[in-house]
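Deviations from the work plan: none for this task. Representative record:
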Amino acid sequence: MGELLIGLYIFVLATLAGREVISKVPPTLHTPLMSGANAISGIAIIGALVVTGGATSLWVKVLGTAGIVMATINVVGGFMVTDRMLQMFRKR
Amino acid sequence: MGSIAQIAYLISAVLFVSGIKKLSSPATARSGNARASLAMLVAIVTVLLDSRILDWTTVAAAVIAGAVVGGVLARTIQMTAMPQLVAVFNGFGGGASAAVAAAEFVRVEGSGASLGLGDGVTIVLSTLIGAVTFSGSLIAFGKLQGIVTGRPVTFPLQKTLNALLFAGIIVVGASLADAGIGGAVAPLFGATALDIGSPFFVALVVAALVLGALLVIPIGGADMPVVVSLLNSYSGLAAAATGFVLGNWILIIAGALVGASGLILTQLMCKAMNRSLGNVAFGAFGTEGQKARVKTGERPVRDVDAEQAAMILAYAGSVAVVPGYGLAVAQAQHELKKVCDLLEERGVTVRFGVHPVAGRMPGHMNVLLAEADVSYDKLLDLDDINAEFDSTDVVLVVGANDVVNPAARDPDSVIAGMPILDVDKARTVIVMKRSLSPGFAGIDNDLFYMENTLMFFGDAKDQMSELVREVREA
């Protein structure tokens, strides 16, 4: 089975798994869900590290580095702000 | 990629899914977020150990720069500005995916090899989705921040332009992805299939950036929850597409999770406004023309001052508060909390009814109330609070309008079928509002003229401070 097809299997199954767990998140937490999901979309950092790490030409390096910076902002900022919000949700 | 790395990525994937699962309750959500960030850390450490990094200095500098910017933004942002921040982060996520796909394109081009069909399609898709997400998110940020007008921007032939742009993107994308199509298209530009790579790729990026901006500008401020959710979904899909480019499963899994999350929220937001996604995207809702038709103030209303409102609230058995975006604009949530505390000290039961589209992104109002120290078990969603209004003495509506408009029950109304908070079923309704002006839907609100409704006119913050004083004395 080709790599693309395996990827497609994984993509579809992960989407279904995601739909199951995410549909159980209550409306109260939808903003933290979104900012947390946002941080997760910073997973592009993995791709950015791969291309930048192996870069031998200037343009690849420039694009890859830009990718690392943007993805890291997304990851670090996203998880931190989600934590900041969630610690405000308290029961009294 | 080594097997150990693959196992580490699998662990990361499990941590991501189980972390999100913990978001199903406010009690466990914080540890869920910590788990998801651990998942990210596992993936990052894995890729650093597993791949050959030629230039550690550049990589470290880029990571530190990003971490500092992200950290400062996360710490300093005001909770009212959360939608803007999420929009910007969405944009960066999309931008990062597009940058990675572009870097991969340059690398393959530079090596002299031709893109295979599979690589070609995935690189084109990843660049396209990433770039659309990037520019669309920046426009959404501009609208939320007030840099770009919040009104829908429309111009003649807008849809035609979008369609042409999209058709152009398909032709350029197909030419890049498939050598056969590229060979057929290239002579039209007086070139050969081998020369069109770089210029066509640049054209693809530019066209995608323009398309992203054009797709968001016609959408009005009130529809921002839908747009932000949709862009959130795109940022995930862009990351997943990048995973296909690099043959990296963790990117595909994490991207798919975000894609699913954004899509679910998009559907929920559309449902809460009773509109289809197509209608949000192309409807240009809430334009000037609609507002001009409304005549308000021709029917009598009953109004109260702070002292009277305080009396009614203080001597009620149960109070339900319905906060809308106006509350956040006025920054009156802390004063509101004080009023509620004073009422509870007197033995009044206080709860909050939050409509899904209250605020500028899904769940925004809940965060603002949590920030003001409201206990989360008092925040009820639409169905739960609607079951309670019958037995509620007083409802205090603050800065909300369309979501409490009984016209939604009238099949001929423009908001017909929109799920609303049935506040008119309570014994008394106090509406705190600047004037009788219509909300985003641009229609008059029958609630204001009902027998059991009292209008409490004024700025939410000033009036709420008044109310704090009066309730204390009542």
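Chain B touches chain A through 111 residues (CB under 8 Å).
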